[in-house]
Prior knowledge:
The structure is a single chain. The termini are far apart. The radius of gyration is 19 Å and the shape is globular. The protein has a single domain (37-224), classed as 3-Layer(bab) Sandwich (minor pseudopilin epsh fold). It has a 3-stranded antiparallel beta sheet. The protein has helices spanning 2-17, 40-62, 72-77, 84-101, 113-123, 126-139, 190-193, 197-203, 210-222, and strands spanning 144-150, 156-162, 177-183. By secondary structure, it is mostly helical. Bound molecules: fe (ii) ion. Fe (ii) ion binds at residues 46, 50, 96, 183, 185, 187-188. It catalyses: 2 superoxide + 2 H(+) = H2O2 + O2.
Amino acid sequence: MKILKIAALxxxxxxxxxxxxxxxxxxxxxxxxxxxxxxAQTMEIHYSKHGAAYAANLNKAIAGTxxxxxxxxxxLSETSKLTPAIRNNAGGHYNxxxxxxxxxPEKNTQPSAKLAKAINExxxxxxxxxxxxxxxxxxxxxxxxxxxxxDKNGKLFVSSTPNQDNPLxxxxxxxxxxxxxxxxxEHAYYLKYQNKRADYLSAIWNVLNWKEVSKRYEDxxxxx
Length: 224
Ligand SMILES: [Fe+2]
């Protein structure tokens, strides 16, 4: 009896210490909050199925590896040495966690003065930047992401990566700290926009959370 109790206690302790390392943060708005630009069904499936799967599959992929004890940023910085399952799911988890935060139902958020100045200096104007970003997303063949990032010199740049790669990974050509990422996988828009990716890319600016992008920009600069 005593042995059984010890075994049961061991199982409880083991369960506590094998909990998932990475998990999704709650979506900061309702699934239907972005209606008009991104429909509720797309948001629900995207967050609760696709987003959830990246976190769960990342935990499975790192189980029993040294990455179990690493932060997500450490894992992303050495993806060239890791398995495709870790690369894809670490990227998927990071990218989606960023994506939920840079959308908002709040209307007319604006870039901070500092970010607006940097955008104007780098791209000419906010509209020119939006055009460049939308083009990066539209031109991405197959699935991937369009990014606005800060490079090692503190300069902004636009890039695109395939699949779930991102500018934090050591395998990408254009490295930096992402401050805005737009998901151009079909799962992000197909229910509402079908093959019209450009229409999705144009609508997303209506729900863009410039407060969050500005905060991420200023955080990235402060770490340079
Ligand atoms: Fe996605």
